[in-house]
Amino acid sequence: MSTHTLESATLDYAFGTSIGLRDIGGIVAQALRQSGAVLHDIDLGFFGDSLSYGTDYGRVNVVLTMRASGTPKIEIACDVDRRGTPATARRLCYLLASRFVAQTPVRDVVWHATGQRIAAEDFTWGALRGVGHRIGLPSASIVPTHDTLAFA
After folding, report:
1. Is 27 helix (H, G, I), strand (E, B) or coil?
2. How wide is the angle at C-alpha 17 spanned by C-alphas 96 and 90, nearest 5°?
3. What is the 3-state secondary structure of 79-117?
4. Is residue 141 part of a domain?
5. Per-residue pLDDT for 150 more than 70?
6. pLDDT over 90 for what percent of the chain?
């Protein structure tokens, strides 16, 4: 029996921001290399608006959409299967989101596990860790080292 843990976030951009799938692919590949994940396959979505990466931890899906207002948003979902843990999904999703915040003009991040909207300049592991304590998540033991993942 397979179990899955999903962690996800949405990255919102300001009006007039231009970002494409080519930009997204490079950022995700860099983050996956940094995490030490082994990449098994890459799938480009049918409409060319999404990328799905098969890793040794599970699937990482990234979808780029345009809102009616013309502002882009990126949805990140890390679906970690039985080989990973909820902590693995959380750290991987955080690493991906923080790479986008560092390399693109993200306005704010919506962290789906808590429903919190965090301004890009305030998006840190500490901010998420504090939220975890407030809602009772076991986040105290989940600490990225030097902004990288240390999967055990």
Report:
1. helix
2. 15
3. EECCCCCHHHHHHHHHHHHHHHHHHCCEEEEEECCCCEE
4. no
5. no
6. 45
| Residue in the structure block whose two tokens are 């994940």 | 37
Q: Which domain holds residue 76?
A: 5-133
Q: Which helix (H) or strand (E) holds 32?
A: helix 21-35
**Cα–Cα distance for residue pair 48/34, rounded to 1 Å:** 25
Structure tokens at 60: 């990482």
- The structural domain count of the chain equals 1
For residues 113 and 134, which has the higher predicted lDDT (pLDDT)? 113
H/E stretch holding 131:
helix 125-135
Residue 50 in domain:
yes
Q: Which H or E run includes 133?
A: helix 125-135
- Taking the model in full, what pTM does it have? 0.80
Tokens of 102: 């560092």
Contact between residue 91 and residue 142 where contact means Cβ atoms under 8 Å apart:
yes
